[in-house]
Predict the structure.
Amino acid sequence: MNRKKTWLVAIAVLLCLGTAGRTAAQEQEPTHHHYKLVVIEPLGGPTSSASGPDQLILNNRGTFAAYANTPTANPNANCFIPFNAGDCFVEHPVLWHKGTLTDLELLPGGANGQTVAISENGLIAGFSENGMTDPLSGLAVGRAVLWTKDGKVIDLGTVPGGTGSIVIAVNNHGQAVGFSDNDVSDPFSMVGGFATQTRAYLWQNGVIRDLGTLGGPDAIAGNVNERGQIAGISFTDSNASSNCPWALTTHPFFWENGKMTDVGSLGGTCAGVSWMNNRGQVVGFSNVAGDQSNHAFVWDEGHGLKDLGTLPGGSFSGANWINDAGEIAGASDVSNGGHAVLWKNGAMIDLGLLPGDCNSEALAINSQGQIVGNSSPDCIVDGNVVLWENGSAPVNINTLVTPASDVTAVYALEINDRGEIAAHGFTPTGDQRGVLLLPCDENHPDLEGCDYSLVDAAAIKRSTQLIAPAQAAAKTTSQTLSSAEQMAQIRSMTALRRGRFYALAQK
């Protein structure tokens, strides 16, 4: 899979223990639609990709925010950083809509940029280099930007004293959140490459605002909903913690109307947030007392923090996404593997995994209750994109693609309310692609090449396509990250996919 995610290997130790039997849901054999696979082709370079997971990159208008390589060698990439190993080409933000791919404008003087998120009304969040060099790191400065619906690029700036910034989420009202450096020295900065504090911000109507922290030096804002509520993570003090992916004790926060609330933890020293819905419900993970395991949680102002527990025999769980109905997608280990799970109406439902696979994880759920994730054959590389719908057994989405594609969808990022799926894919030669899977259904009439017949689940055979082999990630002791690498690090830290297992698996 994407070599920016080197911590994936750790899950092999924890979860490669075998497979489980069939769940009750797997006894059903409903029908599924075929899908058309759309590939985001590079801009002359070797790869394309998309941000995520735990970021909104595909809205309900079918607009997909991605990024793609050009053939130009990247003058600013640090090719020895694991997050960016072997990908030393200039990278541009792109937008796909109804078959048209648009190369988005960068800030004047900038060479590289990426999209990071998109709102329902078409505002695009991301970052762009601006042609300046950071005097502390020696790298090109990256700035948080918004692209308006007419394609204009807006520099969101930094908090006072800052040089670089990144935006992580944006809503329909043009409120954007993310993180910025400042000019206060900080040896424990949340983001590699920052020698100063990492500060959560809210940008609105041309003004950027430092949201503060829960008592420690750093914070990052990762979600903003349509009510203007913000969720993120913050250091709570300056006491070092060896039990977190971060250097200091870390809690999720909830921010509204100028007030930052500590979401707390389940007794441990480390907790993180992955998603927040439009009702202000926050999900994520937290270490439990003793820091030897972690559990998924859900929090809201009315009910406080709730431990979602694990499947029988399990010790670890994490929540990845919550829809506006309060349905939560995530994963838990069990006595002999790791399984995707759904929390619904107070119950925890084992979603199972593909036959013969090692582990699975549910990554996103839409308003229709359709769930996407992945199922891994060897617990090291990411497996095929998996769909759960109508209480069915998991289905390998590649078996539903018509016409057949030489690009294999291997990691789901998001599913919108139209059932469209954003994912990563690989070519037969191992080059990464951003891909979009469009269902051949009544909401997508007249899609060229679509097979509108239904597929009986009993007739679906497990895909024989090979997953692209993992590429060994370069190792380095350097802590200097470019803007793209900082974004990748934030994904790996704040996204729940296996990141929650990483620190504990290394003990």
